Amino acid sequence: MISGTLSYASFGVGTSSHLFGDLLAREAGIALLHVPYKGAGDAAKDLLGGRVPLMFDSATSALPQVKAGRLRALAVVAERRSPFLPDVPTFAEQGIAGIDLSGWLGFWGPAGMPSDVVAALNAAIAKVLAMPDLREQFAQGAYEATPSTPAELDALVRDVSERWARIVRELGVTAQ
Description:
Structural class: mainly alpha
Number of domains: 2
CATH architecture of the largest domain: 3-Layer(aba) Sandwich
Oligomer: single chain
Number of helices: 6
């Protein structure tokens, strides 16, 4: 860590952890030094080792370290608090707007898949995601099983893609 400058680790240039750090600096009006790593594992090792003081990480990988007392969760990057970290406030609750992009996973198939096949797969996936044992397994990994329709997923992808593209342009992030 460079003396007098607060640094943060990221998974690499252009990754979500990099963009969240730049967003935090912009929205909070503070200077942060970006320290890019070649992946989440190396960044987490240096965070745990005290070589960098901050990092944006997924709940899935950070939660075990938080529960073990090796990391302290400072804020949730979402519109609402995480059910897995209910005592950790969002950035918005702490007066820092604009850092509320949640992660998600989708189920994909090839372009041109027949609509009846898409509908059948979607119904099967929703049924599986409603299974209590699967929901519990997801929760252990800090995931919430939230089924949606193909149209809802399409709208989400478009919205998130447009939002990230705007953020990347505004922050001036470029490939190195």
